[in-house]
Write a structure and sequence with these properties.
- It comes from Ancylostoma ceylanicum.
- It is a single-pass type IV membrane protein.
- It is found in: Endoplasmic reticulum membrane.
- Keywords: Coiled coil, Endoplasmic reticulum, ER-Golgi transport, Membrane, Protein transport, Transmembrane, Transmembrane helix, Transport.
- It is a single chain.
- The radius of gyration is 65 Å and the shape is rod-shaped.
- By secondary structure, it is an all-alpha fold.
- It has two domains: about 90 residues; about 90 residues.
- About 80% of the residues lie in helices and about 0% in strands.
């Protein structure tokens, strides 16, 4: 069966697009995307010419086109996980349909084997898994470096804290030593003051005894003086009375 010009253009562009995807999809993604857009226009034209094409072949073309669209969408994702998830949307198997590319004048063009969806899917999955593995290894290495830095910072903080605690302990020990010396001096002063208080108490007792003795002696002396004065004044009064009232002589 001869191919129309639209079908021939579609197949040739599809093969070139697959070749770009096989070589380096990440570098040629914009070319593949542009080719997919043009392939969609050609496929729409083929669908308008249904009477001139085999329905099974049109279905095969649609599947191949959908495969390329999914590949472009997967490559457009940022993370490797999203790429793998998008890649899983590609069917694992397409029904085999032999596609012979012929020109309008039925001259046979050299046949290029059409790559199956599973082969494209497996190759790109391997690439994305390798990228994901590199990304995970890089993140693991970065995480280890961050953990190492955090561990070093934590150890440095612990060392600084230990030094501060050691300094505080030394300062506390020194303060305790000074306080002990001060307490010893205070105890010595208190002991000497207690001795002085005891001595002063003994002196006060002796002075009190002496004062009591002097007070007793002074009271006794005052009593003697009072008795002497009483006797003296009694004698004077008696003399005065005798002078005033002389004794009468009885004849």
């Amino acid at each position: 069966m001869s191919l129309t010009a639209s079908e021939l253009s579609f197949l040739r562009l599809l093969e070139r697009t697959k070749k770009l995807a096989r070589e380096d999809l990440s570098a040629n993604v914009w070319k593949v995307n542009a080719a997919v857009l043009y392939l969609e226009n050609l496929f729409s034209r083929l669908q308008d010419e249904k009477s001139m094409h085999n329905a099974d072949m049109l279905m095969q073309y649609g599947r191949e086109l959908n495969q390329m669209k999914l590949l472009v969408e997967a490559e457009s994702c940022k993370s490797s996980e999203d790429k793998l998830s998008q890649l899983d949307l590609i069917p694992r198997h397409f029904p085999d349909a032999g596609i012979d590319i012929q020109s309008k004048d039925t001259s046979i063009v050299p046949h290029h084997p059409i790559e199956t969806a599973s082969e494209v899917r497996v190759r790109n999955r391997a690439v994305y898994r390798a990228d994901l593995r590199k990304q995970l290894l890089g993140e693991e290495k970065k995480r280890r470096e961050e953990m190492s830095d955090d561990l070093m910072k934590h150890e440095e903080k612990q060392e600084n804290l230990a030094n501060e605690l050691l300094s505080l302990t030394r300062s506390l020990k020194q303060n305790m030593t000074v306080a002990g010396n001060v307490l010893k001096d205070d105890n010595k002063r208190l002991s000497s003051m207690n001795a002085q208080v005891d001595a002063n108490t003994a002196r006060l007792g002796a002075e009190g005894t002496r004062l009591a003795h002097h007070a007793y002696k002074c009271g006794f002396d005052c009593a003697l003086i009072f008795v002497a004065l009483f006797i003296f004044w009694s004698f004077i009064c008696m003399v005065i009375v005798m002078k005033i009232f002389p004794k009468r002589v009885i004849a």
